[in-house]
């Protein structure tokens, strides 16, 4: 059983404000908990229901909790029987890769999670995101990343400033836009930052100024646009 | 104001069973209603709130309803101020295109809607889906298709039987699977059926038997899989 104080803290982690205050987030479900444990992230505690076999503890606490407590903590309609409390990763890492994905103002948590999963599939190690992009520790981002949140390095940065610096270091800056060069195997240089804009507003004027050029997925039918995660998947498949 | 009977019928259309019984479905929001009106589909009626300018009627009825009625009919948390009642399209069409997309057992309405949007973007006219695939007139499918439901011809068929027939007519049958030929511009023949399996189970053994070969999106990183809609987008971008 959890103390009132513990329960209150765990419940509060459903909100970004309290995740930032505590520097921790919750991961729900057996598969994601296992991925968290196996990752470089620091798991602080695992909470599980009676019917769930807990993982073998190493550096973290394991505690059995009631079904009621699980429902109170969970952000899901049908709470899974196991959750992990995970510390925010160290975000001060040096960018060492030639291929960088940058996302600007992605609001939909499902889209950001799916983009992380795609980046992970294609071996993109570094994802930069603008400050107003949806919180990466939002439960829906974590769920839709299918564990890729633990394998991709995401940095929340002043995107304009960061892109200016990368441009000065020889990176080509390439935006995904509705009109631009036709996407093919050699359209995007090997050393580049690919910028994906927000679902509704695209790439901001500040970042558009920094673009060397834009790239476009050729349209042949009637749809007005592609979902931003789908577009990211297509472009990465030609670039990596 | 709507009669009790009308209200009951409109509300019931949130369920597949009643959509099939009446042969009608609801479309919500200004953009989708406009797309429905401009499409080949037959719009029977448009319902709108006081603040919403109704479209100019032609062959359909236009009725002002209260906010309460809109909320009662809507399947959305924040009901938009306008909805259209649309008849099921005539589904007896002849397949005339060389490139056919077939989806088997897609359960998630967001995925099916996104797949229709992608097919529409790439000009794939015909989408075949297995009988157990989620209902295409599910409100979430319609929303996530972003109007492509009105431009893509979707046929719900006995997929094994249909694919057997198409194979006999000279179509290559190509599955998207985790191991197969590496995807590139010329991997999939011009005249072919591309089969995308379900999110959790992939392609069924019955249809696997009919495949000429499988195609795979090369993986370079850690993610176990790609979302089925993302994978569809990537493969179509190389094929069309």
UniProtKB/TrEMBL annotation, chains A, B:
InterPro entries linked to this entry: Alpha/beta_knot_MTases (IPR029028), MRM3-like_sub_bind (IPR053888), Ribosomal_eL30-like_sf (IPR029064), rRNA_Methyltransferase (IPR051259), SpoU_MeTrfase (IPR001537), SpoU_subst-bd (IPR013123), tRNA_m1G_MTases_N (IPR029026)
Record domain RNA 2-O ribose methyltransferase substrate binding: where: 26-92
Pfam families, alphabetized: MRM3-like_sub_bind, SpoU_methylase
Keywords: Methyltransferase, Transferase
One GO cellular component term: cytoplasm
GO BP field: methylation; RNA processing
GO molecular function, one term: RNA binding
Entry similarity comment: Belongs to the class IV-like SAM-binding methyltransferase superfamily. RNA methyltransferase TrmH family.
Protein name (record): RNA methyltransferase
Species per Swiss-Prot/TrEMBL record: Salibacter halophilus
Native organism taxonomy: Bacteria, Pseudomonadati, Bacteroidota, Flavobacteriia, Flavobacteriales
């Amino acid at each position: 059983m959890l103390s009132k104080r513990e329960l209150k803290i765990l419940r509060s982690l459903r909100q970004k404000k309290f995740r930032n205050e505590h520097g921790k987030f919750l991961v729900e479900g057996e598969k994601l908990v296992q991925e968290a444990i196996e990752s470089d992230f620091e798991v602080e505690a695992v909470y599980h229901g009676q019917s769930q076999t807990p993982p073998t503890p190493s550096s973290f606490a394991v505690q059995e909790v009631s079904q009621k407590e699980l429902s109170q903590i969970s952000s899901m309609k049908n709470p899974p029987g196991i959750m992990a409390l995970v510390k925010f990763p160290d975000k001060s890492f040096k960018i060492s890769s030639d291929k960088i994905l940058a996302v600007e103002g992605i609001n939909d948590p499902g889209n950001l999670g799916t983009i992380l999963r795609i980046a992970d599939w294609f071996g993109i190690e570094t994802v930069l995101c603008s400050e107003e992009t949806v919180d990466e520790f939002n439960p829906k981002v974590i769920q839709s990343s299918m564990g890729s949140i633990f394998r991709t390095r995401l940095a929340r940065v002043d995107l304009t400033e960061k892109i200016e610096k990368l441009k000065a270091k020889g990176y080509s800056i390439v935006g995904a836009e509705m009109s631009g060069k036709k996407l093919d195997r050699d359209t995007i240089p090997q050393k580049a930052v690919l910028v994906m804009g927000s679902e509704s507003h695209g790439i901001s004027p500040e970042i558009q100024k920094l673009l060397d050029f834009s790239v476009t997925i050729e349209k042949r039918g009637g749809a007005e646009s592609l979902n931003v995660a789908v577009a990211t998947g297509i472009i990465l498949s030609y670039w990596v």
